[in-house]
């Protein structure tokens, strides 16, 4: 009894709250529907258990379900791994190469990023996935990717069962006329006859499950392809974006240097082993990473600091001229603003007339930026940032986009 209590800790029970989110509810619902319907269709109408093939097929269906759920829950509950609170580099002088997180009260270790959803700095953060209601990062990247592989494979098997079930049950029962097509659902053609006839309800349920299986195969299969592409280059989705911004910064300021991604080991197999291991435990500790011989240990973090400085240079100051409630799709801001709301989980920020915003990027009808806060008014709040409609603000006449470049850089004319 004591051993059981030591395993089932309070914090582990708290993790069960991750299931109470639309992402896991939908994902587990799709898995349950496809798996259950595949087993029912196979046993009752397509491939009965008293045959050798039917038994093997049924075991394979159970195997797909178990492996999919195992990797899904591993990705959800094991989590990505977080940078320890208060973390500092071993050499205090290296802190000049790192960003400091005010929320976690710690330096951001190389390859780590702060997640607003998890409210922690995540080691080797790839992205925050709503389907597992957790981040994908250092510890669970392999489980998450295996889930993306196994889910389409299982759905392909299930889709085959659905198609063959409908084909065998409806074969020779289609009556074609000049103007109509009639489907006779009254009798079955299998010998021996199934205990439960394949009726209209079973046909509708099977067709619905087939749609879910095909949709999942396409959508999740594309995500698997994207993940494998970046894993074989030993990158994350965020690091791919940082590399693109590095190229843009170099081109914008006409610099002579070239950014080299430091964590690419030069071999796809070596990059692959950085995520997938026989033990299931990823290499390293999530804080220190091997780098190329021609790169510095902090090459990526130095580039991030340069981009942060460049972001401040390119940002534009706006003044709020109309209140905005922070709703996702505001009707009172115009039809174009309503229908072009950014398709992202990034927050919207509430605006009040007279406030100032530092915009860093934007779309045609929306801007993204940080509120310029008064420390005496909002004590303890580090940043308030998000999307807001363009027609709620106006550019400050005394603060147009600066022509100055960061120190040591020249601007592209």
TrEMBL record:
Transmembrane segments: 25-47, 59-83, 146-167, 195-226
GO cellular component terms given for this protein: endoplasmic reticulum; membrane
BP GO annotations: intracellular signal transduction
EC number annotated for this UniProt entry: 2.3.1.225
Keywords for the protein's UniProt record, in alphabetical order: Acyltransferase, Membrane, SH3 domain, Transferase, Transmembrane, Transmembrane helix
Top-level EC class: transferase
Membrane-related topology note: Multi-pass membrane protein
Domain SH3: 313-398
GO molecular function per UniProt: protein-cysteine S-palmitoyltransferase activity; protein-cysteine S-stearoyltransferase activity
Protein localization: Membrane
Keyword Transferase: yes
Highest taxon listed in the record's lineage: Eukaryota
Recorded catalytic activity of this chain's protein: L-cysteinyl-[protein] + hexadecanoyl-CoA = S-hexadecanoyl-L-cysteinyl-[protein] + CoA
Notes concerning its domains: The DHHC domain is required for palmitoyltransferase activity.
Family named by the database record: Belongs to the DHHC palmitoyltransferase family.
Alphabetical list of PANTHER family matching this protein: PALMITOYLTRANSFERASE ZDHHC16 (PTHR12246)
Name of this chain's protein: Palmitoyltransferase
